[in-house]
From TrEMBL:
Transmembrane segments: none annotated. One of its GO terms (cellular component) is extracellular region. It comes from Maylandia zebra. GO terms for molecular function: endonuclease activity; hydrolase activity; nucleic acid binding; RNA nuclease activity. Belongs to the pancreatic ribonuclease family. Residues 26-140 form the Ribonuclease A-domain domain. Keywords: Disulfide bond, Endonuclease, Hydrolase, Nuclease, Secreted. It comes from the Eukaryota. It is found in: Secreted. This is Ribonuclease A-domain domain-containing protein. GO terms for biological process: angiogenesis; defense response to Gram-negative bacterium; defense response to Gram-positive bacterium.
Length: 164
């Protein structure tokens, strides 16, 4: 679990990737620059992404990027959070989240609905400067290199609609 005692974002996996093979599993299950919302069923099956005992995984997230950019999160392009041991990306990513449509289904009857999410801060667990666990993502209204979505507010500003 990525957030011991904290609920920040939905966690994609119940078994830490570091226990089952680290960055290789992370890369296979979560990084795919060519993924699309229409390919969830195909890719989940092709990449053999299942939960315990051949049960269909409830949700899996694919980062639409090459592995080099994702790996950079653990190599200076991320912000380490000491409270939970995770690292948040500085760059914003597009992701495809695949949600299981038929709850409780078992392989091979897994059916997924894909959703494209943009401007996401990706949260990962790093080990040895490599991402080994996808912890989730956070929405941001900022784009990379711009201030779109930010509302500037000076500390000296006082709202005029306050009544005592």
């Amino acid at each position: 679990m990525c957030f011991e005692g904290h609920v920040l974002v939905k966690n994609d996996s119940k078994v830490p990737h570091s226990v089952t093979g680290g960055q290789g599993i992370f890369r296979r299950q979560h990084v795919d620059a060519k993924m699309s919302v229409k390919k969830c069923d195909t890719e989940m099956k092709k990449k053999k992404i299942y939960a315990d005992r051949n049960k269909c995984k409830d949700v899996n997230t694919f980062i639409l990027s090459d592995y080099k950019q994702v790996k950079a999160i653990c190599n200076g392009q991320g912000r380490y959070d000491q409270t939970n041991g995770t690292t948040k990306s500085v760059a914003k990513f597009r992701i495809v989240r695949c949600d299981l449509k038929n709850n409780g289904a078992r392989k091979p009857k897994c059916q997924y609905k894909g959703t494209l999410l943009t401007n996401r801060i990706v949260v990962v667990k790093c080990e040895g400067k490599l991402p080994v666990h996808y912890c989730g993502d956070e929405m941001t209204f900022e784009s990379n290199n711009a201030t779109i979505g930010k509302i500037p507010m000076r500390s000296t500003s006082v709202p005029t609609n306050i009544h005592f």
